[in-house]
Amino acid sequence: MDPLLETLEAAVQRLRQPPPVAAEVEKIREQLAEHRAQGLELDKLLPSFSALCCRGEELISRAAHDDPAAQAVRSRLLRLRSLWDEIRQRAEERESKLNDVLDLAGKFWADVAALLSTLRDSQDIVRELEDPGVDPSLIKQQIEAAEAIKAETDGLREELEFVRTLGADLIFACGETEKPEVKKTIDEMNAAWESLNRTWRERMERLEEAMTASVQYQDALQSMFDYLDNAVIKLCDMSTVGTDLGTVKQQIEELKQYKVDVYQQQIDMEKLCHQGELLLKKVSDQTDRDMIQEPLTELRHLWENLGDKITQRQHKLEAALLALGQFQHALSELQAWLSHTHTTLDTQRPVSSDPKAIEIELAKHHVLRNDVLSHHATVETVNSAAAELLESSPGDEASHLRDQLDQLNRSWESLLLKTQERQKLLEAALQQAEGFHGELEEFLQWLRRTESQLSAAKPTGGLPETAREQLQQHLELQAQLNQRAEQYHHLLDQGESMLLARGGEEAGPGTTQTQQNLAMLQNKWASLNTKMDDRRGKLEEAVSLATGFQTSLQDTMNWLTQAEQTLNMAQPPSLILDTVLFQIDEHKVFVNEVNTHREQVLALEKAGSQLRFASLKQDVVLIKNLLLSVQARWDKLVQRSLDRGRHLDEARKRAKQFHEAWRKLTDWLEEAEKRLDSEVEISNEPDKIKVQLTKHKEFQKALGSKQPVYDTTVRSGKAMRDKAQLPADQQKLDHLVGEVRDKWDTVCGKSVERQHKLEEALLFSGQFAEALQALVDWLYRVEPQLAEDQPVHGDMDLVSNLMDAHKVFQKELGKRTGSVQALKRSARDLMETGRDDTAWVKVQLQELSNRWDTVCALSVTKQTRLQQALKQAEEFRTAVQMLLEWLSEAEQTLRFRGVLPEEAETLQALLHTHRDFMGTVEEKRADVNKAAGMGEAILTVCHPDSITTIKHWITIIRARFEEVLTWAKQHEQRLETALTEVLNNANLLEELLSWLQWAETTLVQRDTEPLPQDIPQLKTLITEHQTFMEEMTRKQPDVDKVTKSYKRKPVEPPSSLAERRGARKHQQQQQQPSMQLSGGNPRLNQLCARWQQVWLLALDRQRKLNDALDRQEELKEFANFDFDVWRKKYMRWMNHKKSRVMDFFRRIDKDQDGKITRQEFIDGILASKFPTSKLEMSAVADIFDRDGDGYIDYYEFVAALHPNKDAYRPTTDADKIEDEVTRQVAQCKCAKRFQVEQIGENKYRFFLGNQFGDSQQLRLVRILRSTVMVRVGGGWMALDEFLVKNDPCRVTVTPGYFCCRARGRTNLELREKFILPEGASQGLAAFRSRGRRSKPGSRNASPTRSSSSASHSGASLPSAPSTPATPTASASSRSSLTHSRDYAKPWLAHSKTPTPTKCHCCPDLGHNHSAPEGAASGSKLKRPPFHSSRGSLTGENGGTPHSSKRSDPKRGAATASGPTSRAGSRAGSRASSRRGSDASDASELQDARSVCSDTSDTPRRPGSATKPSKIPTISKKAPSPKTPGSAKK
User: I need a surface site. Which of 304, 684, 845, 1498 has the fewest CB within 10 A?
Assistant: First the structure.
């Protein structure tokens, strides 16, 4: 019972103070496995526990109620059961906690990994977005893309909060040493989130800055074009040169005022050109460069033309003035101009130090210089006129004129020189300032890079080597900073000198750019130095912490090693009291030392936790492992110290108990020996002798009462000697036992000798009767002890003690022999004397002789019986020891069997080996029975003191043998069950394979047979196939049973939360999961492959049968098909849905060309969920397509649905114009609709509404082929573009089609915004093509973690050109769409058509845009590309028609490439008509425009449009046109 109590107490102690729960999944699994292994070990103690409980209850029931031994057993049983129950309860609680934490940790680490991957991928997407563009529409799309990314990443906030909650729960559940790692992971996730938000904010700031600059540039550019137009018109509107002096002077003044205004605008123009040059430096794409370069080139060209016209006008006026004889006036005007120009040059601002200010001055000087150069012809004209006057003038006048002329020429030369010097001065100052500012900017960039390098610095190292390496790298960086100090001071001095050189002249309000840059430089330098110092301080502190931690760790490990060596070298606990007390004192010193180091270990753990929280990941792992190693060694050391203390205390108790018993017995024996030695004299008087004899009998009685104490002491000493581990203890205990034995024998011998002497003295004193009576009494007293019915059998210790006691008795008997002989002689002497009592004496002597002989015989018999009992006890002990050794080996063998193999051969070998072992066990059963029989035989004649011991050994060997036998049978049963299962699975596998072979052959054979055309036969086949499917379903559990014993191949975990959700849905929807097995039986892999193949064949067969049945039923129903019934049903269905036919047709007509293909019509009706079939729809399509051209236009659609109404088809141009105007105006669905009123043929009044009020305009309208044109100014504009310009409620979505703002939207519009094109779903919309922008990998839109956000080429726009089906295209067909918002573009209100974007309130408009050539790959996040709106929308702008334009079979296949039409009007001009005109309309439309346009003095670019825009829009070629067969997919 005691060993089991110790085991249970140790187990309870472990469960009361369990190790802290880990945070990592693998370690938690290890802890769980270790805990379960401990539970199995405890389960193996259950038989022993049950046996002990039963045995204890049996002993308690047999014992008396107040028996102290029974009370002790009862208390121990209660303790044993309470410990067992506590162990069970705590073990269940521990396992439950570990399972809960395992689930929590699994969720946390998986979600953290997925979320971190998503956040980093999202940040990479944002960083890889291309730089902000230069076109506002493009920047707007970039802003919308960034906002879409932000909206998508904001959707991760909920998951972020969920993961944070999981992390908090995990921190609460795990141990203290694991918490820093979880906290660090959460902080890393939070940092990734903040970094993503910061990157997005920086992106938005750059885009907003670019938008502001681009809008300002576009506005300035457009206003400059407008000003130039007005200036040219104003110059052209000036009257012709007058013929009288007054008119000429007035015109000269008017021209002066005009030039002042023009020259001021020219300064703005120079600034604009400089701004455009800066934009050119920022872009690298040639298309962007062309977009910026061409307007600037045209602007300069227009400005040069304007300058030339002004110069021509000036020269004409000056020539007219001279022609009128007003030379002096012309000379005065020229001198006044020279004087004014000199004054202007002299009063110009001094040279600044800022490049922008110098550029402004240079622009102003460039204007002045142009003005000066434009007067060169004037000076020459005046000189030539003066030369003519000098020839015809008299002397005085000629002299005066010559002086004026010389003064004029000197002033002119001086002016040219001043102009040139000012030019050189400004250029030199600009070069110097640009050089200084370039160097300053380069230095600032280096500072920013260094600062960002510091900001992105890694965590500090946790190990001294890593920390020192980081510190060394930082010192190198700081050394670079110190090397840059000279450059920094040089820049400061240079800047200060530049400011001082021009400081007095530049003093004024505000701060110059140089001062700002110098202040920024100083701030950056100071900030960087501060950060450098802070970082250095942190790194030095990290080095100090790491070094201190390493030193403390090394000291602790050294001390632990020394302490472990001390415990290893410590001697086992001694059983000698003095020695064990000395060992206890030594151990107390050691325990005190351990306790003093406890604070050191705790401080080490605290420092390690701090380092782990702020260190590099690789250092964290190493520090964690070191701390775990130290903690494990510390715990082991403390446990070993406690165990040694407990063992020493137990040894002290046993040693003290033995020592006290031995000392008390020895003292008593010494005292008894002294007493015997002191009582040497024997009196001669009979009375005194009797008294002495009586006293001696009392002493012998006391000596006899000490016999049990002596036996217990000797037995305890022998047991301690056997258990003693120290040789000195064994010698000492042998000496003590021998000493007490010698003293006991001495006292016993002296007592017997004294007894003998007293009896002899009594005899010799004449007291024969008393002596005889004393001897007879002694013989009567010892005879019962020698009786044969007295049990002498038992265990070895008891029999040995009995033999020792019998040897003492035999010595006493030998000493009594002399007394008996003396009594016999005395009796003979008395009888010879012839006394009266001779007969009595004779009788007494005879009785003495008989008693003596009997006692001697019994003594010999007992000696023999004791020898037999000793031999039997030795045999029983030997048998028990041999059985216990074998049982221990058998238990070890059964305990460590391990996991059963899965191979039948190995299992059979194991079973054969185990059956051999079972044979050995059965053989040992005879030994057990023999030993138990020996024990039972001993029990029948056993001494009472040994009954419990013998029964205990018999119970032990039987219980342990039965336990081993039970384990062996259980293992045999497991082996047989496993072997049977393996064999059954093999047979089942073969049966399944043969059945699958038959099933596959049957299915293939049935598939080759043609399906019948009869419905009953088809139903019979379907019933048969259904029976086959049910049989296959019944075999599914067999397949699962065969495959369950094999490990499944792990599916690659999804990279993100969205993918995992999608994977779970896919698994739920999948009918037959695929089974992939790793390794093992190839037949099993064959089974899986065949099962899948047969399943797929069966499903395919079922689908074919159902399709055939459906088709036959459709044919049966179609036999009675009536189109009129179908039409009425369809119209009722449309009315029920509150839908209009026009809206439905527009929704099907993706490219909005007024006609749809047969397939589009059929698919559209079927997709609308109208109850019909494909067969019916084929017949309906034939009825709708009246002319049989393969297309159904709107009029055919309406005429088929409304047969009673005459189909209206416009015939004349006026009808076509009216139809188109009505159709375009009907696009508006506002509460206050845009109004157009027809006044006459080809004349319409447009009621224009804008932000300044309402107005009416009368416009001429004509049609060129199928394109309706409106007269605007001096040219013609497409009707739809005119409506875009003048209808304020419209925003462009796709060129030529419009939607309204949300204000005034009808219920129908609100409902129809959710009617999406086929194959589309509401989600994130991919960005449409902007031509050149669709570069592979250049744009990434959404950070969603699903793989569905691919290119939009085939899904977002169903009218995309036909391309070979690819996996990417099929995946993209499932991409989701959302409706992006449209914004007004005020900067383009009078320049060019706004960028077409898609609006949520329009029907789907199938305008094709080029998809990217390559989809972004390599990331879990698919990146829908941007699509430029500058791509060609029709064939008019390139040479190739747009791919969304299909070729009409009635037209020729030829395409024409002509001059590009005005880019601003391409959105709605429809040069290539969708209703019958061929592709060459583009060149004819351009010719018509060139004829109809008014002439202008302003030069035009080839292919550019007339008013209102001068800003070109670059277009690129579109893909080749689609054929009718592939146009609508």
Answer: 684
The total of other beta-carbon atoms located within 10 Å of residue 1239's CB is 10
Q: How far apart are CA 741 and CA 519, in angstroms?
A: 107
> Within 456-512, where are the H helices?
464-483, 485-506
Show the beta-strand stretches assigned E in 722-786: none
pLDDT at 503 over 70: no
Strand partners, 1260: 1243
Select the more confidently predicted residue: 1460 or 1043. 1043
**Which tokens is 1073 given?**
């999961």
User: Is residue 1264 classed as helix, strand or coil in its secondary structure?
Assistant: strand
User: How would residue 1126 be classed by pLDDT, with cut points 50, 70 and 90?
Assistant: confident
| CA-wise closest residue to 577 among 655, 666, 658 | 655
If we measure between CA atoms, which residue out of 772, 747, 777 comes closest to residue 759?
772
pLDDT surpassing 70 at residue 1367:
no
The whole-number average pLDDT for the span 339-362 is 76
CB 954 within 8 A of CB 932: yes
Helix (H) or strand (E) segment spanning residue 753: helix 727-764
Paired tokens of 673: 């020996």
Q: How far is CA 475 from CA 446, 481, 482, 544, in A?
A: 17, 10, 10, 16
363 closest CA partner among 492, 257, 276, 246: 276
SS3 label, residue 155: coil
| Residue-level pLDDT at 1494 | 39
Residue 417 CB neighbour total at 10 angstroms? 10
Structure tokens at 48: 């022993």
3-state secondary structure of 1284: helix
Cα distances (angstroms) measured from residue 68 to each of 77, 159, 948: 14, 68, 16
Task: Let me know the angle formed at the C-alpha of 568 by 562 and 572, rounded to the nearest 5 degrees.
Answer: 140
pLDDT tops 50 at residue 421:
yes
Asked if the bond preceding 1508 is cis, omega within 30° of 0, the reply is yes
Could you tell me which of 193, 13, 169 has the C-alpha nearest to residue 90?
Answer: 13
Burial pattern 1367-1403, b for ≥16 Cβ within 10 A else e, equals ebbebbbbbbbebbebeebebbebbbbbbbbbbbbbb
For residue 1354, which phi and psi values (nearest 5 degrees)? -105, -15
Q: How far apart are CA 1026 and CA 1023, in angstroms?
A: 5
Alpha-carbon distance of 351 to 362, in angstroms, equals 10
What 8-state DSSP symbol labels residue 1301?
Answer: -
**What is the residue type of 1066?**
H
| Residue 1444: how many other CB atoms lie within 10 Å | 27
Which H or E run includes 1270?
A: strand 1267-1272
1044, HSE (Cβ side, Cα atoms, 13 Å): 8
Q: What does the longest C-alpha to C-alpha distance in the chain come to?
A: 224
**Tokens representing residue 1392 in the block:** 């060019």
Q: Alpha helix (H) ranges present in 783-837?
A: 796-833
> Is residue 1333 predicted with pLDDT exceeding 70?
no
DSSP assignment of 1148-1168, as one string? Answer: H-TT-SSEEEHHHHHHHHHHT
Share of the chain above pLDDT 90, in %: 7
Q: How far is 673 from 361, CA to CA, in rounded Å?
A: 137
| pLDDT band at residue 837 under the 50/70/90 scheme | low
Q: Classify 734 as helix, strand or coil.
A: helix
Q: What is the mean pLDDT of residues 831-835?
A: 67
- For every residue of 1344-1411, DSSP letters joined together read -SSTT----TTTT-TTPPP----HHHHHHTT--B-PPP----GGGTTTSPPPP---TTS-------PP
Q: Which of 20-24, 682-686, 798-802, 1097-1101 has the lowest mean pLDDT?
A: 682-686
Q: Supply the pLDDT for residue 1358.
A: 38
Residue 1094 CB neighbours (<10 A): 22
Which position has the higher pLDDT, 453 or 353?
Answer: 453
Residue in 1198, 1176, 1060, 1200 with CA at minimum distance from that of residue 1122: 1176
Determine how many CB atoms are found less than 10 A away from the CB of residue 1101. 20
